[in-house]
Amino acid sequence: MAWVPLLWAIKGAAPRGAFYLGFFHGLVLFGVTLSWMWNIFAWVSVVLWAMLALFTAIASLFIVKLPEKGRFETSAWVAMVWTGVEYFRAEVFALTFPWITPGTGLPPNQMTPFLGVYGVSFLVIFGGALLLRSWREGSLLLVFVGVAVLIVPEAPESVAPIRVGLVQDEGAGREKLARASQGFLEEVDAVVWPEYSFAAIDDEAIELGKEMAGDERIFVASGMETRDGVEGNTAITVSKEGVLGCHVKNHPVHFFSDGVAGTTAGVVETQFGKVGTPICFDCDHQDVIRKMTGNGAEFFLIPSLDAEHWSARQHEQHGMLFRHRAAENGRWLAVASSSGVTQIIDAAGMVRKRLPLMEAGTLVGEISSVSERTFFQWGGWLIGPVSMFGTGLAILWLIGRKFRKSS
Question: Which 3 state secondary structure label does DSSP give 286?
Fold first, then answer.
């Protein structure tokens, strides 16, 4: 319902007025929901909220510039423009930030494995725009979306479960993490430590990983590794033989010393199946887990980091994004985070087990290996980029029309 008042406010407004209304809506929305940014950036967070609000303003501006047609056509155009600008802001813009959207504001639902979060955003905005033009038709669509959200999807039970042990402890060194893992080593198949468990992926780190893996397990953790003179935040997967594979973080966190971005999203062959090991902020974006699943990943073991002083609200918002990635791709995720949310998520995006926030501890549970592809994998993910491309063409058309009129 946060979006309907905005659409109502800009309906019939002049372009400049719609821009200012959109900017005000975005500034309030992001300033409230992302208030935790103040703990990290202080007054600079106001600039960041304003930058995010600018995209709401731009979407509002071009929504009112669209030509009037029938209620369905116009509502679809409104949804396309909104989704196109949202996708650009979240996945393409230099400071990508896929938080606080209509799609991520809802929990994983029946539509997520078909259309993904950007498809859900499209439906929400389409329904809101249609509601303002036709109460009956808009209500029917929003009821459909609401039912899809309220029906909790189910993931198949594990046929050949993989036992995972996750460690949550902020600022712990490798020795403390190793001691914490001793309590569950004999009962798990995989051990996952938080992001930056190792300051560097050196020989000592690999030897410790082999010790944690033992004869029958695999071990996943991350640290900074120098390759060809380039430093990247790297997740390593280790067995008793040594390093089975690496993944360099594709999406380093903005404004932090998080290494040079990796360019591949491969998978690692293990005795339990093909595993993907994205790192933290990789999972905020739609592309990395999608590409890993496309490359054959059957389950995911994820090192993550959320500092305690970033607040519980930040942790919970971030934890929800992992759930969306699981539901979009139909894969189980095991996430080990520094102070939370350390959680096990099934292939429908539902949390099976988790640890309390801000408390050191360990979590043992089961995940499953899945090979089937969702509709999202086959093409549902294209709603975001297609909307962005269509919006770009519409903007060029509007600019061309204005140029022709002026000449």
Answer: coil
Instruction: Report the predicted TM-score, pTM, of the whole model to 2 decimal places.
Output: 0.94
Cis ω for the linkage preceding 341 (within 30 of 0): yes
Domains and CATH numbers, the chain: 4-153+380-406 (no CATH), 162-369 (3.60.110.10)
Helix H or strand E encompassing 44: helix 44-64
pLDDT digits (tens, 9 = 90+) for 165-196: 999 999 889 999 999 999 999 999 999 999 99
* φ, ψ for residue 175, nearest 5 deg: -70, -45
Dist. CA 90–CA 93, nearest whole Å: 7
Q: 362 by DSSP, 3-state: which?
A: strand
Q: What are the phi and psi torsion angles at 337 (to 5°)?
A: -115, 155
Place of tokens 């809802």: 106
Q: Going by C-beta distance under 8 Å and a sequence separation of 6 or more, which residues neighbour residue 32?
A: none
Question: What are the beta bridge partners of residue 223?
Answer: 198, 234
Express the helix, strand and coil content of the chain in percent, nearest 5 each.
50, 20, 30
